């Protein structure tokens, strides 16, 4: 516990840990990987972040012979688990040719919502629990 606290309290200067997060090919599991970015100010706009990639054959999102998947940042949140200006970056997954992967249901939803934007559509999520 003390060792973890020592590392959490290290000075980061202008280093920001950006945890890129996406849903994998099972549509049930969340994957992530971290990169270090340099910024003297907090990062709040996903459009300023670089795209990244990963091997989609290891996550069930691409065949082994053509496995590159592109992570496109969509939104940014302050990382609640790390101190400093570190962030969580929620991402969509695309092919290198720019096509949304079949598991990227957000891209399709955005397309539909954009078509009816004048009606100001919205939706909510509901979670139900049973306690025994």
The strands making up the biggest β-sheet line up spatially as: 2-1-5-4-3
**Overall strand count:** 5
Q: Please give the alpha-carbon distance between the first and last residues.
A: 32 Å
Q: Could you estimate the helical fraction of the residues in percent?
A: 10-25%
CATH class: Alpha Beta
Q: What is the ordering of alpha helices and beta strands?
A: HEEEEEH
Mean of pLDDT: 91
Shape: globular
Taking the sheet with the most strands, its summary is: 5 strands, mixed
Radius of gyration: 18 Å
The CATH architecture term is Roll
The class by helix and strand makeup works out as alpha+beta
Write down the CATH topology.
Ubiquitin-like (UB roll)
Number of domains: 1
Q: Could you tell me the strand content as a percent range?
A: 25-35%
| Poorly predicted runs | none
CATH superfamily: Glutamine synthetase, N-terminal domain
Keywords: ATP-binding, Ligase, Nucleotide-binding
Organism: Palpitomonas bilix
Protein name: glutamine synthetase
EC number: 6.3.1.2
Protein traits:
132 residues, alpha+beta, Ubiquitin-like (UB roll), five-stranded mixed sheet, 2 helices
Describe this protein's structure.
The protein has 132 residues and is α+β, with helices and mostly antiparallel strands. The chain has helices at residues 2-8, 105-115, and strands spanning 15-23, 30-38, 52-55, 68-78, 87-94. It has a single domain, classed as Glutamine synthetase, N-terminal domain (Ubiquitin-like (UB roll)), CATH 3.10.20.70.
């Amino acid at each position: 516990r003390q060792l973890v606290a020592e590392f959490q309290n290290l000075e980061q200067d202008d280093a920001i840990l950006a945890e890129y997060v996406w849903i994998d090919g099972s549509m049930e599991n969340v994957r992530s990987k971290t990169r270090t970015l340099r910024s003297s100010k907090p990062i709040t706009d996903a459009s300023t972040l670089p795209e990244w990639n990963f091997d989609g054959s290891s996550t069930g999102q691409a065949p082994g012979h053509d496995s590159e998947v592109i992570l496109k940042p969509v939104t940014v949140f302050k990382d609640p688990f790390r101190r400093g200006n570190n962030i969580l970056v929620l991402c969509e997954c695309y092919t290198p040719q720019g096509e949304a992967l079949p598991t990227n249901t957000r891209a399709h939803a955005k397309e539909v919502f954009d078509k009816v934007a004048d009606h100001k559509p919205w939706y909510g999520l509901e979670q139900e629990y049973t306690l025994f």
